[in-house]
Amino acid sequence: MGPDTFIDLIGVWIAALLTLGVYSSLIKDTFISKLTEAVFVGVSFGMSIVFTYYNGIKPKIEEPLVRYYQNLHVDYATVTNAVTLTVEKIADAKTLSAESATEELTDEIASRSFDTNRFFAVLDSALYKQTLKLQSTNDVAVSLQSAFASSEVNLVNKATVMGSLNEYFTTYKTVPTSRHFWVLYIFFSVILGLMFITRFFPKHAWLSRFPMAYTIGIGVGMGTPLSFQSQIMQQVQASFIPMLVRNPNGIDWIATAGNLSLVIGTLTVLYYFFFSFKKEDAASRGATKVGIAYLMIGFGASFAFTIMARVSLLIGRINFLQDEWIQGTYEFFKYLN
Amino acid sequence: MKLFLSRFASFWKNRYRAIIYILTFAFVWLALINKKPLDLSVSDATQGALDMVEHMPENHRKKIQEQEELLAKLQKEESVQSSAELTAQIDEAKAYLERLKINSNGVFLVCIDFDAGSDAELGPMAYASIRHAFSLGIKVLINNGYTVMAQPLSQMIVDSAALGGATMPRPYGFKQAGSDFVFFGFRPNAFQVYLQMGESVLSAYETDYSGKPLADMPIMKGIKDIRDIDGIAAYSCNVGTPESWINVANTKFNIPLVVGMTAVSVSDYFPYLQSGQLIGLITGLRGAAEYETAVGAPPVANRRMWAQLYTHAFAIGLIVVGNIEYFIKGKRAA
Questions:
Q1: Which chain B residue has the Cα nearest residue A27?
Q2: Environment class of residue B10 by beta-carbon count within 10 Å: exposed (0-12), middle (13-18) or buried (19+)?
Q3: Which of A111, B99, B107, B329 has the fewest CB atoms within 10 Å, measured from its CB?
């Protein structure tokens, strides 16, 4: 668990000193505790931006736009020729190997049917990948070859394969119209996202309401039906439980008490939050008090769990200081000597 | 004596916080020196999580069998009366069956949605469950939910479970990225990503965290959409984020779901366990310790439970002392 390299050791020491820096605020706020807070916020925020760029902006915006731009400058006749030649070569190799194989094996290969769907899926994936790079037709061939090598498409029947390929190219659009719309959609998304920044300019801040409305609308639209089902319907359904639980030996008193407690708790807590009329009679006041008792038990459990969680964090840090910092440093230098 | 007590009272009044801090640190430190694992019984909530992973290969085989039966039934129907719709159904069933057979022991998705702040509690449970899955030959997919900073941490947990080290011996060999597991990394807007996984995992995640295309990985040949996943475990430090999995995985696609939460947030999720929407709930450090003890993982959380025990005893002692002081003061005031 300790540091393996000198760089690791430096990292562990920085982490340990920053941990102690944070805990120094228990004595009083000092320059060190403020510095560690600032380092924590700065590092977290900086890394968040980097991760968001590499995992969101780059694959979803930058790369598709770059591919689209590259696609516009492709000589598709050359690509088509390269694809035809490559597939012909692969089909030739398969046919030849089938012919040169033993009779038994040839029969076995011949019995397999040519999977047109799978063939087009492989072709599509290879074409999609290589036409995005488009440096040379050689790349197209290499990409196709590797796609066919990793697929289970049987290319033994050469005539069928080449026929299908010709048919495919008659319908194959070099840059499909849908791609133009896709780019428009990306631009629309980028502009909508940039509108959030207008909040910094009071004169144009109203523009930020559009992305806000779009985001909230989408979130509510997608989330509401599922949330309603999972958080209301299924929860209500789960509270419909038998008040008297029976087992083969008679009545299961523990389960019965548990179910009764659940039903009483649900009803009294709901009643406590029912403010439409005054609760002046004895029954209402009693039900309200029972509801409060249930709430207090719930809050007590939450508070106890909170202490447990906070202590766990402290334990984690002290565990780090003991195992990785003190013991790790000792073992690192012991190993060096 | 009176002078001593008054001096002690004055000393305590001025320095009680520092004394309590020092004692808490001391209790934790002393407890961590104890390397002996604590004997823990496994709660029903944790047992549910354990069972999901333990029975995954068996359930996956049942799924294959059911699919084979369905395919045979459809083919029989087709032999009597053929239609385009039936042919499409047969093709789909065939493709699904082929995918199921590729990852024959099942596919387990682990969503690591916490950062270093909650690593002490959630790290051991994520590590133990990934190890558990690896030891049963289950293929593991790892993603991140809403927490951006979960990515570097997840990478460490995954590497540690797959490759391990001298201090973390594994009952299985080295696990290969792309064949035995794949780490997708973080994507913004987790809820939309989960929904998109329902349509196609490859469209939600085109590459893994390091930018390698997923389509080329052997493990992904058996995974098209979320239906190909046999169970999900969501480890989260944020209240409200596992609800996305409950909505998508459980309500929409009916996939077994387990949640692991920090102790501070876990009480919000017991209703889901009671309603059967979750089949297991791992509660903070205690749950992690139970899990790793049950599966025989290295005792990381378990060792920390001694410190929990000591500090809880100390906290209860302080509560008792505080109450005694309160009643004495109350009497004096009266």
A1: B18
A2: exposed
A3: A111
